[in-house]
Amino acid sequence: MAIRLAHRCDGTGGAEEIDPQGQTAAQLSQGEGFVWLHLERPAPDEPDWLHQSGLDALVTEVLDAPETRPRCATHGDGVLMNLRGVNLSEGAEPEDMVSLRIWATQGLVVTVQRRRIRAVEDVAEALTRRAAPQDSGELIARIALRLADRAEPIVADLNERIDDLETELEDNGRVPSRAELAEVRRVSIMLRRYMFPQRDALSTLEIEDMDWMMHGARERVREATERVTRLAESLDAIRDRAEVVHDQIMDMRAEASNRQMLVLSVVAAIFLPLGLLTGLLGINVGGVPGAAQPMAFWVVCALLLVIGAGQVWLFRHLGLIGRDRG
């Protein structure tokens, strides 16, 4: 497992890079401050520090799990967490959320990723500016906040897209793209799938009775929880608004179909008696009225026009045609 970052934070904002190879987790936990190791899978050709670290087998299994969902659980004197962040890699779909596995104790924080997570890079960048976290709890809180910060533009973009679809439907009277609507619904549902469990995981971390979780760290975790909660609620609202737009589109299509069926029904109703009359006059038997009269054809045509006009007037009077039925 490749080591992407290894720093010892002194608890006063400073951090120095270290080489953890050959040292166990217990050895790294000794000393002032705490150590942050950020690992990445897969790396088959590089030394696998995780499985040589001396960590508990359960911790190693959770950190190396291929699939995860957001959660938080205490184990001994540490905390196991799984968090999710939007995928901001080039060519990737943001809703294909990437996982971050965390094992945290007072003297050691191990984070593991399988794909690039920009939020971790944001936190790591602060180490070079003497703005390192003061304790393990603050590091987790910072990562959680940055995960929420990175997700906010994605949710805001979804809000703008659903706003545009609603405007196109309600103000312009046009049927918006069903493909665009389906995409908004799909993305919001997939993001929401992880946001609510992530909120619960952060809430659990906030209330866990861990001695190394200082008050400031708990405040940051609470802020991260509130941000994730707002994001989850926004995704709920986006999903509901998308369903409303979809229902409106279906209503408009049903109304248009009903209008077309009404027109066809009216046309059929108008021509049914006319067809009956012409059919009777066209039968090949003796005694058809007017067969020997030169003007009979024009009389029949005039009669058909009168009957047709009378039916049109009747249908208008009944409100079947010529009125707004919507």
TrEMBL record:
Domain of life: Bacteria
Compartments where found: Cell membrane
Coiled-coil zones: 214-241
Keyword Acetylation (UniProt): no
CDD domains associated with the record: ZntB-like_1 (cd12833)
UniProt cross-references to InterPro entries, sorted A to Z: CorA_cytoplasmic_dom (IPR045861), CorA_TM1_TM2 (IPR045863), MgTranspt_CorA/ZnTranspt_ZntB (IPR002523)
Membrane topology: Multi-pass membrane protein
A Pfam family hit: CorA
Main location group: membrane
Listed transmembrane segments: 262-283, 295-315
Keywords: Cell inner membrane, Cell membrane, Coiled coil, Ion transport, Membrane, Transmembrane, Transmembrane helix, Transport, Zinc
Family designation: Belongs to the CorA metal ion transporter (MIT) (TC 1.A.35) family.
Protein name: Zinc transporter ZntB
